[in-house]
Amino acid sequence: MSKSSLPVVLSGIQPSGHLCIGNYLGAIKNWVAMQETHDCIFLVVDLHALTVQQVPAELRRRCLSFVAQYVACGIDPERSTIVMQSHVPQHAELAWVLSTLTYMGELNRMTQFKDKSQRHASNINAGLFTYPILMAADILLYQANAVPVGADQKQHLELARDIAGRFNQRYSETFTMPEPFIPGTGARIMSLQDPSSKMSKSDENLNSLIALLDKPDVVRAKLRRAVTDSEKEIRFDPEKKPGVANLLTIHSALSGESIPALEAHFAGRLYSALKEETAEVIIEALRPIQTRYDAVMADKKVLEGILAQGAESAYRRARRTLSKVYRKIGLVPPAAR
Ligand code: TRP
Hints:
By secondary structure, this protein is mainly α. It folds into two domains: 3-186 and 300-329, Rossmann fold (3-Layer(aba) Sandwich), CATH 3.40.50; 214-294, Tyrosyl-Transfer RNA Synthetase. The chain is 54% helix and 7% strand. Residues 10-12, 14, 45, 48, 135, 138-139, 147, 149, 153, 156 line the site of tryptophan.
């Protein structure tokens, strides 16, 4: 089947913090699998990252590093379109148009905005407020059919659907209605320090996450410090024993062993055994990713080539949608120059 007849999948990650095994097991691993069945577009949403204050040199480095990590995890730039959001100006342009179709009340209801304004009380900028509109533009620009997102982004996707529906109703059918894509597999990985909350790449406590680029000794040290409980028994009980359950989940997701098999394997053994073995499983899983990462990063030309290719293909598609939008809403097309 030609690529253009496959359903379009689009997703993105903000270049903040450190890509971690939570991102890998919860998102990127599924993206890799979807390349078989979908026309995939994967974004590094650098414009979204500006909604919190960034150190320019670090942002630049992180953006490139994220692209290399996508590739290292198995996103194939020959099959999928890898896009740096800011390389395709239509994201910001469409976001402006969509902002005129979005109500303040709708944005006010976004729980992520409420959370983030609490956490960044000294920097509640307008971009933080309109963030979901830019995300809607990311999705609608490429006529995405399916958007793999975590639970925390469901509300934003709902808004994108509402905006699409509103535009289509007002100006005639233009945007594909994007569906949330909740992959059947994909583990929910929790923080190593607070196993009641999700492992987050932006957690300030680096002990709570395993970065994809963490070296073996760092992985071992973080696992040793992982929070468990004061009992002794290794069994899978996310309610009562969230720390232990999380380690079993990580082990199982990376080793392929089932949870019951792991419970049997660790029966009667100490937590330290679970921690040490899980550390080695993580190290083995990260090894090929880190090797590929080093190879991609070693040649700046390769990385630039991937981004140029992604931007070119994305630009063509984005321009098609935006011209249609501008025409439908009544803007005068520019004369050929
Ligand atoms: N807001 C998403 C997040 O924080 C990132 C994102 C931006 C995104 N644009 C997107 C995800 C488009 C899916 C589709 O996780």
